[in-house]
Amino acid sequence: MIRVELVKLLTRPRTWITILALNALPTLVAVLLAVTDLGPRPGTGPPFLSAVLTDGTLFPLAALGIVLPLFLPVAVAVVGGDAIAGEVQSDTLRYLLVRPVSRLRLLVAKLVSVVVFVVLAVLAVAVVAYVEGRLLLGDAPATGVVSVSGSTLTQAEMTQRTGLAFVYVVLAMLGVAAIALFFSTLTDSAVGAALGTIGVLVASTVLLGLDAADAIKPYLMTRHWLAFVDLFRDPIRWGDVVDGVLTQLGYLVVFAGAAWANFATKDVNR
Amino acid sequence: MGPAARWLVVLAVAVALVAVPQGLRALPVADTEESAADLAARVLDADRLGWSGEVATQGDVEVPLSGDTFGGVVRILGESSRLRVWWRGPTEHRVDRVRESGETDVVRNGGMTIRWRYEGNRVSFVPYSRIRLPDDPDVVPVALAQRLFTGARPAELSRLPSERVAGRAAAGLRLVPADPRSTIGRVDLWADQETGLPLRVEVYDGAAGSRPVLTTETTSVDLDRPARSATRLDISSGVDFSRGVTLDDAAGADAYAPFAPPDEVAGLPRRGDPEDFGAVGVYGRGPTALVAVPLRDVVARGLREQLRKAGTVRDTGERQALEFGPLSVLLDSSGRGNYVLLGTVTPETLEQAADDVRAGVRLVDPVGR
Questions:
Q1: What are the pLDDT digits (tens) for A62-94?
Q2: N or C, where is chain B less crowded by C-beta within 10 Å?
């Protein structure tokens, strides 16, 4: 079942068009920075972007900072929202369900397929940004990469922490994937499911800026998304990274559970 | 399993995920029999304890001045911060203010202060100065408690119920300043029952509002003394280095301005060791305190413009006075030079203090002071 879903994901043109679109903004930013030599003022803009003019090897991290707050979750919402509702829209869900496969297994396969999309998208952003950074923005300084705390990060440390950052970003999208899958079981409209998920993301972002919402902030999905920056402090600040992973796992368990609760006995006419 | 049972399972899991951490935090804490004075004594002794952890600060004052006015004062009173702290003692600690995309680290190592700012890609080495504007290490609970509870009288102290702070049982202590010149209504503090280390400090102004104007709270704590290496900055050779003479304008004025302010203003005695007295005067006791700083004309001019832009300023031409939260500010250019006075005292007290500074300030040679 999982293999079928993965083949479907990888052979769909829309998967690759979405990944291409995700790379468009970081690419435009890299070109503009290279042409104008004008970076954002230090401390402003996405994380690491102010440093890429002197060290192009940081551009994958800056690219992550660019796509993470909006473009990546929107892409995940669209793919996740299409998981079940898209099958209904194209009249294929009932054919899927006549196979001797439980609905739970179908849901798991759909969720795995969305997570694989996230991995592909994040990897693509990283690789494209690395190439762009090296070609357009220059090499790392001979003195090594400077951590956020001012110490030198060796190439091995940098590689290890960058790897951790990409794993973290993938994990940060688990909650979005689960919510999109849940909405996808609620409605027959893939667009509606995606919009519902985006609505949750917008609400989370708005509440993060509201002092009156202090009590619920630790539970908001977007609260720890940019905590990957903490992996580049010295020593690494694990607190928010761990909290971020636990929050995403919490969303995954609850909303994947809700998707199962709703989908297990849902009437399927199309 | 039926549909209702499935939804019940999901609901139970969701409630458990939210409620368990909250429940652990809300576990009741047994009170101790310790008197308020004894607890205050342990609190004042706690800055020698070693510990590490994270601190969240929240300033709740609407500040009408730009962010870099008076060093960190405006930021501390008007914004929130996350601090990483490695504390080996009052003269050896590291405090990192972390932001989403950067950080500022301040290391105190004996007589030297080292400051790293990621956004500026610069590290600076400056001799430590006792007289200086407030900075991040000053709002770490243990440091703020030192500042506010030093000199507190037993009649001003009372116990509060214990609470759980950063997972530790913390004994509560309240300070209500008896001095009517203070704009601080009360200070509530919770200190670790076992060690006396302050974990949370809440400062309230004299208004009847129930929200503190400044809260600083330890959110995680490790009571083992951190290794000496943890309080050092291992700075890359690829960053810009600079060596400064003074920490900020107040430290510079204290060392080099040719003035000696009086020993008492508005009935408040000068604080500190007379051997260390410079051009800056710090007066008062505990939270009833003010500082008088001489300013060069160019600095005074900039500050005057800033104060005049604030809508609530009282401007007599020679004096500009402004209040925000519990803080009163007065810039006086009527006498010999310019003095700015800043403190948690009433506007009338600050006016009187400005009169006393103007009448009592002496010209001295800063080299032979």
A1: 999 899 988 999 999 999 999 888 888 877 877
A2: N
Which residues of B fall below an 8 Å CB-CB distance to A?
Answer: 2-3, 6-7, 9-10, 13-14, 17-18, 21, 54, 84, 96, 98-103, 105, 116, 118-121, 123, 220, 230, 233-239
Residue B27 in this model has a pLDDT that exceeds 90:
no
Structure tokens given for A248: 């995403």
Is it the case that residue B334 has pLDDT exceeding 70? Answer: yes
Q: What is the pLDDT of residues A109-135, one digit of tens each?
A: 999 999 999 999 999 999 999 999 988
* Cβ-nearest to A149 among B7, B9, B105: B105
| Residue A9 parent element (H or E) | helix A2-11
Query: What's B182's DSSP letter?
Result: B
- Distance from the Cα of B14 to chain A's closest Cα (Å) equals 6
- Is residue B88 very low, low, confident or very high in pLDDT (cuts 50, 70, 90)? very high
User: So what CATH class is B36-231?
Assistant: mainly beta
Q: Write the CA distances from B148 to B24, B56, B152, B272, integer angstroms.
A: 31, 18, 8, 15
DSSP state of A137: I
A243 reaches B (C-beta below 8 A):
no
ipTM of the complex: 0.86
Which tokens sit at B238?
């690829």
- Distance between CA B171 and CA B196 in Å, rounded? 8
Q: How many helices (H) and strands (E) does chain B have?
A: 7, 22
What confidence score (pLDDT) does residue A268 get?
Answer: 64
pLDDT tens per residue across span B271-294: 888 777 888 889 999 899 999 988
Do residues B204 and B188 make contact, with C-beta atoms less than 8 angstroms apart? yes
Write the CB contacts of A177 (distance below 8 Å, at least 6 apart in sequence): A76, A80, A111, A114, A115, A118, A252
Q: What is the DSSP string of B190-236?
A: EEETTT--EEEEEEEESSS-SS-SEEEEEEEEE-SPPPGGGGS----
Domain boundaries of chain B, sorted by first residue:
36-231, 249-363
Rg of chain B over CA atoms, in angstroms? 23
Furthest CA-CA distance within chain A: 64
Question: Looking at the predicted structure, is the pLDDT value of residue A40 above 90?
Answer: no
Which one of A149, A229, A258 has the shortest CB-CB distance to B10? A258
**What are the tens digits of pLDDT across the range A91-116?**
787 777 777 778 888 899 999 999 99
Task: Write a three-state SS string for B113-178.
Answer: EEEEEHHHCEEEEEECCCCCCCCHHHHCHHHHHHHHHCCCCHHHEEEEEEEEECCEEEEEEEECCC
Query: What are the residue ranges of helices labelled H in A37-70?
Result: 59-67
Asked: is B249-363 a CATH 3.30.200 domain? The reply is yes
